[in-house]
Each structure stands twice: as structure tokens, then as C-alpha cells.
Fold this protein.
Amino acid sequence: MKILLSITLIVLAMNVSAQEVNKKIHDQTKNKDVLINICTRDGMISFPEFKEMYDPLYAAYIPDAATMIELKKLVKKEKIKVVFGSWCGDSKVNVPNFFKVLDNLHFKEKNVEIIAVDGLKKAENGLIDGLDIQRVPTFIVYDNKGKELGRIIEGPKTTLEGDLLEIYKKKS
């Protein structure tokens, strides 16, 4: 029984690690190539359709200094899941700005998981099952134990850093 369990765990681990990162598919819904599933930041920003807006928007975005000072005091070892569409206008605008905020916070990149969805807002292999993703981008903040603290859906209510600050204030 232990051997069978060990073999099952090894096969599962191989399937997870074998999952293609920065995978591109042709999305029938959008009739274009899109990213799907787990992405790296480099993979996301090198995807041609996404890159054309990412670079100038990232460079131009200036997070509010006072909000950032307050936010820096609250950021610890949280994790953030970014669910976006490489085809989506709101993702093309808000994802670069969100990463500018994270970079200014010196947020550890290993604590950010990036998942691309297709035009139906789906990913493969159950990656977003149970997350109730209806609009993209969706930025989900988790505490270090995996409990969801809050999310920013599609666009911020105030600013990305302001909404992030509100999520972090609820935690403390």
C-alpha cells in the first residue's frame, strides 16, 4: 500500500512539474493566440500582445507615495495570485500597474503566482477551480497560511495601492 501511494505521489508530482509554463493556445472565443495556465512574469511580459502595453504603462505608473509608505508597514509574507487574460484590455492596463506597486513594495516574486485564462476565463488542470473568477484581472491576496484576505477585481475602486492598503488594513 505504501509503495502504491509513493508511486501515485511521484506521478502526481511529475504531472504538476511537467505542466507547460507560459503555454500559448489558439483561443476560439477570441480567435487569437493567448497565454494559458501558470505564467512567469517574463513569459507574460514577453507575450507580444501584452508587451506592447505593459512596458509603457509600467514605466508611466507612479504609485501614491503616502499610500505606499503606509502599505510597506503592513506587508509581511503574504502571497498574491494574479489571474489575468493576455487578451483582456483591463488586464493589459492593471497588471503592469499592479506589478509596479509590488516592485515598489519589494514584494518577493516567489510569493506571486500568475495564472492566465482563456476567453471563457478558464484555465486547464483545475488551476482556478474554486476561485470564482468572473472578471479579469483578479488579484487575490492570501495570508501566509493560505486564507484569502481580499481581492481586487477587474480594476481598483480607488487606486491599486489604495485598494491593496484596504485589504492589508483588514488583516491587522
About this structure: The longest helix spans residues 2-18. The two ends are 45 Å apart (CA to CA). The chain has a mean pLDDT of 90. The longest strand covers residues 32-39.
